[in-house]
Amino acid sequence: MLGFLKKPVVVTAEINLSLVALTVVGLMSRLWGLSYPRAVVFDEVYYGQFVSLYMKRIFFVDDSGPPLGHMLLALGGYLGGFDGNFLWNRIGAEYSTNVPVCSLRFLPALAGALCIPLAYQILVELQFSHCAALGAALLILLENSLITQSRFMLLESILIFFILLAVLSYLKFYNLQRHSSFSGRWWFWLLLTGVACSCAVGVKYMGLFTYMLLLVIAGLHFWHMLGDQNLSNVSLVCHFLARGLTLLIIPVATYLSFFYVHLTLLYRSGPHDQIMTSAFQASLEGGLARITQGQPLEVAYGSQITLRNVLGKPMQCWLHSHTNTYPIRYENGRGSSHQQQVTCYPFKDVNNWWIVKDPGMQQLVVSNPPRPVRHGHIVQLVHGITTRYLNTHDVAAPLSPHSQEVSCYIDYNISMPAQNLWRVEIVNRESDTDVWKTILSEVRFVHVNTSAVLKLSGASLPEWGYRQLEVVGEKLSKGYHQSMVWNVEEHRYGKSQEQKEREVELHSPTRMDISKNLSFMAKFTELQWKILTLKNEDTEHKYSSSALDWITMDTNIAYWLHPTSGAQIHLLGNVCTWASANVAAVVYTCLSLWYLIRRRRKIYDIPEDAWQLWVSAGQICVGGWVVNYLPFFLMEKTLFLYHYLPALTFQILLIPIVLQHLSDHLCRSLLSKSMFSALTVAWFSSVCFAYRTFSPVTYGEPLSVAELKDLRWKDSWNILIRKQGH
Amino acid sequence: ALGLVTLLSFASRFHRLPEPPHVCWDETHFGKMGSYYINRTFFFDVHPPLGKMLIGLAGYLSGYDGTFPFQKPGDRYEQHNYMGMRGFCAFLGSCLVPFAYLTVLELSKSLPAALLTAFILIFDTGCITLSQYILLDPILMFFLMGAVLSMVKCNSCADRPFSASWWLWLSLTGVNLAGAMGVKFVGLFVVLLVGLNTIYDLWDLLGNLSLSLVSVKNLFMLRISLFLELCIGPGDGFFSSAFQSQLIGNNLHNVSIPEHLAYGSVVTMKNLRMAGGYLHSHWHLYPEGVGARQQQVTAYLHKDLNNLWIIKKHDSDIDLLDSSSPVEFVRHGDIIRLEHKETSRNLHSHQHEAPLTRKHFQVTGYGINGTGDSNDFWRIEVVGRRAGKLIKVLRSKIRLTHVATGCILGSSGKTLPKWGWEQVEVTCTPYVKETPNSLWNFEDHINPKLPNISLDVLKPSFVEILLESHMVMIRGNSGLKPKDNEVTSKPWHWPINYQGLRFSGVNETDYRVYLLGNPVVWWLNLFTIGLYLLIAISTAVVLKRGVQLTSEHKGELSRVVLCGGGQVALGWLLHYLPFFMMGRVLYFHHYFPAMLFSSMLTGKYWISLCCQTVSLLPSSGGSHVWWLGFYLFHPLSYGMIGPMASDPSSPMAGLRWMDSWEF
């Protein structure tokens, strides 16, 4: 207890000065002149709008990825006191004074700068020399594309930071494994691996690739442990459980927590509400919640309701009818019933109101006490304004001839009787006696006579139907499809017996009381599902490229151009580094194959431990490159050069590994060793030279036309040269 | 035993083969294509040609004259002789059973296991149905099983390389693989399986230090050469289509045309992307709501008179074919106008969005008799050339820039909907980028005032044709996207036998055939796969933990479980998993190759498991159960008439074990 009285308190600190120096230089390279240019640069226009929405706490859905990245950017805005008032509409637009440019860009830049010490540490943990580690850090430091990408409000640098952090902590954990399992540090690094992985996935789904890679590597390492006869079965099980907990359960929990924070922050309704279900919308402040707040929960006979289709595609819409009838003959010569049209209408309208009626009674008001409608009950649906009954019969629908036409019945006194009985089936019921609830219940309407199901076909009617969406009775209603499911959105108990009064009532806004809340898990599932399935139309972009262009850097992206001077910023890599990274990958593959075949013939060129090092370095670096690059060949989305940056980072780490291996094992004589070092120095100075040459377009320094032309080393690069002499 | 199995198999496949005497399901395609071969008509299809050629051959030999139109399912054959083709397919389908029998016998060296596998396949209603009609699947599965069998045989003679039987099986593997590749692209998976097996084998040999490096190298070279032979194999199959396209489809063959482009020439323009079409237009207009309501311009893959365009000067409209005026060549950088020959409208673009690629501009045909507006002007440029140079037919890569908007004429490669006759969209792209999509060349060139040169030099090589025809096929294959609202079969449905496929007949009075696996067999297969995975993993872990297996017998078991079973399980995986990643329309019958593998696994595995406890009892009991399943469900494959199974009075009513079955 009182040990400090007996012994002096000594703090021994070991500081790796080169690491500190690297970090400082890295910070300088990324943070220097951060608020320049004071204009919207490239994808800032995209992420900026989300930052603004976070500041205003307005709910949005972004199909490009999970929310952590956006939230980190928004954190920057929050710390800088950003109020969210800026119109993000055009690349190159000047920032107004209320936008804290520097603090918005600070976090990505910081993450980008921290990648440099991480790279150093990774090489050290891979058991390579200080010199190689220094080389890796310097190469990352001098990589123009990484600098450009870090200096703006973009997500790639944050993603790369988390990826490298995950790799580093796994390596630290693995190296501790041999002598101190289950120690505090062991647990710390293992936990950090899991958390960093889920952060990477949380920033962009691309992080999933690295996560998978680490899982596979962890699996392999565990497989080797299985063969270790010194470990007891019990300790193996403990090891297995520890890994399962930290690498599977913790990441999932962390990932969920991002969404929890996201949903807690964004509680106001906003532009993307319509994508979500009514129940979700009702949980947001303003918007639908304002209307539905205080509605009665249970639908009863006599209720006045609006019915929304659950599918929400091609747009959200409500069951609708109006006085116009189906044309007697369609353009293609088929006939119709000439009864009143029933459609799905994408806007709020008084004609969207329907009244639930008991077939056995005449009254259209709610009795006291209300008699709730339950699963399996048979009802009639009366259109509020025209008081006609929802009806379907064996007449082909206007656009989907295989289905039945749905109409509001008009008695023409011909041999076509009304068939207006519908059975209510609650799809998400818990028991067979469930009550039909507003918003929460998803309902199918099954026609009693023909067992057709009320369905939104998704086609839009021609001019005579005012381009509203077609509603049909689907006869072959196999299985569950959202287009056949409806839910009550607005709801009130009808009071007026007379049609005139009722019309007034229908026009008046609803109010009464009860509030609904969705559980977090329900909200999360819905939002996650929407993010994954929501597809933007395949867009083409001026600077989009194919994955094959990236290896050779045949493409670039112009991020920003000064309106008057020639200053511009491009995403353009260090040519020298990219080329040598490719060479390193090829050399590594060839050498590995060579060693592998020779070892199979029991010829050992390099000592066993050197071989182990070589393999484990390859697992991380080549593996990281492969998993972050090859999947893009299978993707159908629009691709940009910056998608390659994570893969590139891994490839760069490979360069010093290959160099050190070459100098250690292939340069046998002293002379060749010194020759090799000289070559390395020469090569490194060329990297520096390339960095210097391209740094004007990295930092956006003004350049003359001639200088710009000199920079265009490849014809396929799109460097913007202003025409001279007007 | 082999004789018995074969006999049973043939009996089950040939039983009631002529029924129903009308076209069933995809017979409408493959029978038609067989007829095409007999009639020597050129056609295009997404599958490689070998299978259809074999069908054609079988039809030819059995005296079918190729006159039946095969228009739609349900057409009666009447007097046409279709038995030859069906018999051929049924014959190949029957061979599957002895093949599987021999394979399992070789792998597990146990007669009961082999018998069990054979019985599973004999009594599987799905396999029977699939073998009884004019389809590609029996042919594919024949080659596939043949390849697996010869691979297994070849492995078993690996201890005496270069012996006669080794040579025989090795070359048979190659032939069968080539056959499988030549029937359907699914054959690729079995090539993968054999390839992986070969690599594993070689790796094993490499580690065998008793073999000299020279002999390893010899073996290596041998396998490689075999694989090359195999790659050429499917080429043989392709030769017919390549040859045909050269003779009939391609105007370039033995034709001489003027070399340099001049004003007044009539030309066709071909897009440079792989399998790109010709610039095409026709009288039909873009429908309402799709850009301006002007004449459609598309890219069309086939030769057509509507592909012809006339090159005109942008500023004068004199008749350039007048023999008195001098010839004027088109030069790089000139501004030209392209007039569609059949409709006399100009190639036109404007700032309306294109029909499918919304960020591009629409391209239309505009103007009357060649009189339009300034939006009809295009600058013609040759890639990598300076201004003023002449433009060569075929050899110059052309870019057409729209003068008014600066966009570039290109083909997006997307297929237009019905209103555009499912031709390919042509747009004007504002993104100035060098891709084959926006490059064109002139292919036909007619100008009576110019001397013709021979173009034999430019004939595409065999390899190019092979590559291009494959590209067309693959594109056609992936183009089979499911339409909206269409109910498609999902890969996860298949192993659980979730939903069958209706071969013929919908109503109660029709003669109905329904493709559905014998549920007893299929569910047992599924169960076995799960059990196999469990046991394989636990065995591997136990071995890795270094548990010393006591008896020789157990060592043998683990070897069988891990190696032999691994091969078969890998086969199943390779034939099943890739379907999850495919975008095209999938059908239930795609699972049958994988089902063969899983049946072999079941046969092998249950026996080695049962050998430990009781001897032959379960296998005989098992085959009784399958017999029962087969007996219950045989009307599905041999056809039935009467009320639907959803009707309780039907004899099949009790058999509708899953709601999704529709027989």
From TrEMBL, chain A:
List the Gene Ontology MF annotations in alphabetical order. Answer: dolichyl-phosphate-mannose-protein mannosyltransferase activity
Keyword Glycosyltransferase annotated: yes
Q: Please give an example of a GO cellular component term from this record.
A: endoplasmic reticulum membrane
Q: Where is the MIR domain?
A: 296-359, 370-427, 431-491
Protein topology in the membrane? Multi-pass membrane protein
The record lists the membrane-crossing segments as: 9-32, 106-124, 131-147, 153-174, 186-203, 209-226, 247-267, 578-597, 609-627, 639-662, 674-694
Cross-referenced InterPro entries: ArnT-like_N (IPR003342), MIR_dom_sf (IPR036300), MIR_motif (IPR016093), PMT-like (IPR027005), PMT_4TMC (IPR032421)
The EC designation for this entry is 2.4.1.109
State where the protein is found. Answer: Endoplasmic reticulum membrane
Q: Does the keyword Cell inner membrane apply?
A: no
Q: In which pathway does it act?
A: Protein modification; protein glycosylation
| Keywords for this protein | Endoplasmic reticulum, Glycosyltransferase, Membrane, Repeat, Transferase, Transmembrane, Transmembrane helix
- Give the catalysed reaction(s), semicolon-separated: a di-trans,poly-cis-dolichyl beta-D-mannosyl phosphate + L-seryl-[protein] = 3-O-(alpha-D-mannosyl)-L-seryl-[protein] + a di-trans,poly-cis-dolichyl phosphate + H(+); a di-trans,poly-cis-dolichyl beta-D-mannosyl phosphate + L-threonyl-[protein] = 3-O-(alpha-D-mannosyl)-L-threonyl-[protein] + a di-trans,poly-cis-dolichyl phosphate + H(+)
Task: Output the Gene3D superfamilies linked to this UniProt entry.
Answer: 2.80.10.50
Family in the record? Belongs to the glycosyltransferase 39 family.
- What protein does this entry describe? Protein O-mannosyl-transferase 1
Q: List the source organism.
A: Chrysolophus pictus (Golden pheasant)
UniProt lineage: Eukaryota, Metazoa, Chordata, Craniata, Vertebrata
From TrEMBL, chain B:
GO terms (molecular function) for this protein are:
dolichyl-phosphate-mannose-protein mannosyltransferase activity
Which CDD domains does this one have?
Answer: beta-trefoil_MIR_POMT2
Quote the pathway field.
Answer: Protein modification; protein glycosylation
Principal localization? endoplasmic reticulum
Q: What is its EC number?
A: 2.4.1.109
Which residues are in the MIR domain? Answer: 258-314, 327-383, 388-445
Q: What class of enzyme is it?
A: transferase
**Reactions the enzyme catalyzes:** a di-trans,poly-cis-dolichyl beta-D-mannosyl phosphate + L-seryl-[protein] = 3-O-(alpha-D-mannosyl)-L-seryl-[protein] + a di-trans,poly-cis-dolichyl phosphate + H(+); a di-trans,poly-cis-dolichyl beta-D-mannosyl phosphate + L-threonyl-[protein] = 3-O-(alpha-D-mannosyl)-L-threonyl-[protein] + a di-trans,poly-cis-dolichyl phosphate + H(+)
Family matches, as SUPFAM superfamilies = MIR domain
* TM annotation in the entry: 83-104, 111-133, 167-200, 520-542, 557-574, 586-607, 627-646
On the tree of life, the source organism's domain of life is Eukaryota
Location in or out of the cell: Endoplasmic reticulum membrane
Give me the Gene Ontology terms describing cellular component.
Answer: endoplasmic reticulum membrane
Query: Its membrane topology, per UniProt?
Result: Multi-pass membrane protein
Alphabetical UniProt keywords: Endoplasmic reticulum, Glycosyltransferase, Membrane, Repeat, Transferase, Transmembrane, Transmembrane helix
Q: Could you tell me which Gene3D superfamilies the record lists for this protein?
A: 2.80.10.50
Question: What does the similarity note say?
Answer: Belongs to the glycosyltransferase 39 family.
Q: Which PANTHER family match?
A: DOLICHYL-PHOSPHATE-MANNOSE--PROTEIN MANNOSYLTRANSFERASE, PROTEIN O-MANNOSYL-TRANSFERASE 2
- Name of the protein in its database record: Protein O-mannosyl-transferase 2
Query: What organism does the record attribute this protein to?
Result: Chrysolophus pictus
What does UniProt list as this organism's lineage? Eukaryota, Metazoa, Chordata, Craniata, Vertebrata
